[in-house]
């Protein structure tokens, strides 16, 4: 029988990690990555100069900061070297009004001939029924009328996968096993994805009347060729734990499959993102070099807001000295104790720090004094 929207149904998502009924208040946004700044968004936006009109986020991650900046009326420019992060920014932040219609969804759920990479590589993760549905959905994405809708249709399978995962970071094994994915095989992806299109996306896509932009390239290089009044810089690879290229490789490969680029993946089971060359902040040496490049390449942007974690391998003083060498003054410093998971009894020694650096040639009367406060 040919599936229809009515036969699949418009389902409720009660009981999931992302219950629309329980999370429908303004401010809801998917943040399924480590290091997102959801709890610091208010403090970050308070540091944005009142005169600013455009914010650029060269390491956007989930896009949560730019999404709130957009809702506050700013034009936003986002970028991430990781494909899923860049795609999420394009779909949820840069996009002003595109949504998937019922006609679009009817196209996507039809049986279709095409590559069966989900069944070939990930049937142990999703199960046969879900794998078949996902392969048909992916094969039908090129039939949608414009690139924005195709991007949105490619984002949905990855989003619905992330929301059911036990862990944010995970590694696909050579045998196709994905730790933390036990709930995927019990999930009805047909209902989940249709509900995501009909119930989730309309709550997330907002129109700020601005020409927002999304990029997928090296964040440091990006700063050279975009015009903005303020940059929020949250480098995701300068902490002591984690491997930026492999912890989230499964999601990046899934994006490429959904975008019809699966044949370009060198080895789906190697746990590698196959990222192009990018400015690396993983070691102390590369972090110092990376921040030095950031400050130089962003010389035309009046204000930089830097998010820093005290577990990083470069100190606040070193970042301040690099900024000073590039002609910037530290005009605000705010510290926040980082909460630990509820199942631990030890005190947290890690702090999140926000640093605002202004060009020596720019001023913002509302924030001329150095603010120091501990969260």
The fourth-level CATH homologous superfamily of the largest domain is Vaccinia Virus protein VP39
| Ends apart, CA distance between termini | 58 Å
The CATH topology name of the largest domain reads Rossmann fold
Class based on secondary structure composition and strand pairing: alpha/beta
Question: Stretches where pLDDT falls below 50 for ≥5 residues?
Answer: 9-27, 365-375
As a percent range, the share of strand residues is: 5-15%
Q: How many helical elements? A: 13
Order of helices and strands: HHEHEHHHHHHEHEHHEHEEE
Overall number of strands: 8
* Shape label: globular
Q: Mind telling me the CATH class of the largest domain?
A: Alpha Beta
* Average pLDDT score: 85
Largest sheet: 8 strands, mixed
Order of strands across the widest beta sheet? 3-2-1-4-5-7-6-8
Helix content: 25-40%
Output the radius of gyration. 21 Å
Name of the CATH architecture of the largest domain: 3-Layer(aba) Sandwich
Number of domains: 2
Would you kindly provide a written description of the structure presented here, covering whatever features stand out?
- The protein is of the alpha/beta class.
- The protein folds into 2 domains: 28-97 and 209-238 and 281-375, Rossmann fold; 98-204 and 244-277, no CATH class.
- It has helices at residues 5-8, 41-46, 64-71, 83-94, 102-108, 117-126, 128-140, 147-164, 189-204, 219-224, 249-258, 284-297, 316-325; strands spanning 54-57, 75-79, 213-215, 230-233, 303-309, 328-337, 351-359, 371-374.
- β1 (54-57), α3 (64-71) and β2 form a beta-alpha-beta unit.
- The termini are far apart.
- The relative contact order is 0.15.
């Amino acid at each position: 029988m040919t599936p229809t929207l009515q036969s699949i149904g418009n389902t409720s998502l009660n009981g999931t990690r992302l219950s629309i009924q329980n999370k429908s208040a303004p401010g809801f946004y998917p943040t399924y990555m480590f290091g997102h700044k959801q709890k610091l968004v208010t403090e970050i936006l308070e540091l944005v100069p009142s005169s600013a009109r455009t914010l650029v986020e060269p390491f956007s991650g989930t896009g949560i900061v730019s999404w709130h900046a957009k809702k506050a009326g700013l034009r936003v420019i986002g970028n991430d070297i990781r494909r899923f992060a860049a795609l999420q920014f394009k779909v949820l932040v840069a996009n002003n009004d595109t949504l998937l219609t019922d006609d679009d969804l009817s196209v996507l759920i039809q049986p279709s001939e095409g590559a069966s990479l989900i069944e070939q590589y990930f049937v142990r993760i999703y199960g046969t029924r879900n794998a078949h549905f996902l392969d048909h959905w992916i094969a039908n994405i090129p039939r949608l009328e414009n690139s924005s809708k195709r991007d949105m249709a490619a984002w949905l399978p990855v989003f619905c996968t992330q929301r059911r995962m036990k862990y944010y970071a995970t590694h696909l094994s050579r045998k196709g096993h994905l730790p933390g994915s036990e709930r995927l095989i019990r999930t009805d992806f047909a209902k989940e994805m249709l509900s995501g299109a009909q119930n989730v996306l309309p709550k997330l896509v907002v129109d700020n009347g601005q020409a927002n932009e999304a990029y997928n390239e090296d964040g440091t290089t990006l700063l050279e060729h975009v015009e903005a009044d303020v940059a929020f810089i949250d480098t995701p690879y300068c902490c002591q734990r984690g491997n930026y290229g492999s912890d989230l490789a499964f999601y990046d490969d899934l994006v490429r499959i959904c975008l019809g680029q699966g044949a370009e993946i060198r080895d789906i089971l190697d746990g590698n993102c196959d990222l192009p060359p990018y400015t690396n902040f993983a070691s102390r040496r590369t972090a110092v070099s990376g921040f030095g490049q950031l400050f130089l390449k962003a010389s035309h942007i009046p204000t930089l807001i830097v998010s820093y974690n005290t577990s990083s391998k470069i100190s606040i003083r070193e970042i301040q000295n690099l900024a000073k060498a590039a002609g910037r003054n530290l005009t605000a410093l705010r510290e926040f104790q980082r909460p630990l998971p509820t199942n631990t009894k030890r005190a947290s020694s890690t702090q999140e720090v926000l640093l605002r650096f202004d060009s020596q040639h720019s001023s913002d009367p509302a924030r001329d004094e150095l603010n120091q406060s501990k969260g």
